[in-house]
Amino acid sequence: MKAPTLLSVLLLAACAATPPENLVGTWQVQEADTAALPPQVKLELRADGRFITSGGCNNLVGQYRTSSGRLTFSDAASTLMACLDEQLTDTDARLGAAVGQARTYRISGTQMEWLDGNGKTVLKAQKTAP
């Protein structure tokens, strides 16, 4: 039996890392850490495994992976704009905390929830675009 080539191993890994189709898209974040967020707050989960948030004072970007209902974020970075609007600063903090706490997710129709390691909902969102 031949040993798998590096290319075939990389291709298999890439296929396994593809996020589920119903997760990919733009989501309006309705709630983070049980607090309602302004309607302009968006979360984009891209098919290439990258994410970006918008609608607060700063944007948060990074990588995400899913596997068997698990949700893992890495390489997160934020822009560092000064913001005098406390609501937008609070929105940024809540989104950052949700990314840091998310361990699993569940989707029902166009609704998504992220849950922490204890099963507590840390973010709720509704899909607005595929």
Would you give an account of this structure?
The protein is α+β, with helices and mostly antiparallel strands and 130 residues long. It has one domain: Lipocalin (Beta Barrel). It is 21% helix and 42% strand. A hairpin with a 5-residue loop joins β4 (50-54) and β5. The radius of gyration is 16 Å and the shape is globular.
Write the layout of secondary structure elements.
Layout: H1 6-16, E1 25-32, E2 35-36, E3 42-45, E4 50-54, E5 60-67, E6 70-78, H2 86-101, E7 104-108, E8 111-115, E9 121-129
Antiparallel strand pairs: 1-2, 1-3, 1-9, 3-4, 4-5, 5-6, 7-8, 8-9
Q: Compute the number of helices.
A: 2
- How big is the Rg? 16 Å
Q: List how many beta strands DSSP finds.
A: 9
- Give the biggest sheet: 9 strands, antiparallel
Helix content: 10-25%
CATH topology: Lipocalin
Structural class: alpha+beta
Keywords:
130 residues; alpha+beta; globular
A few lines on this structure:
With 130 residues, the protein is α+β, with helices and mostly antiparallel strands. The chain is 21% helix and 42% strand.
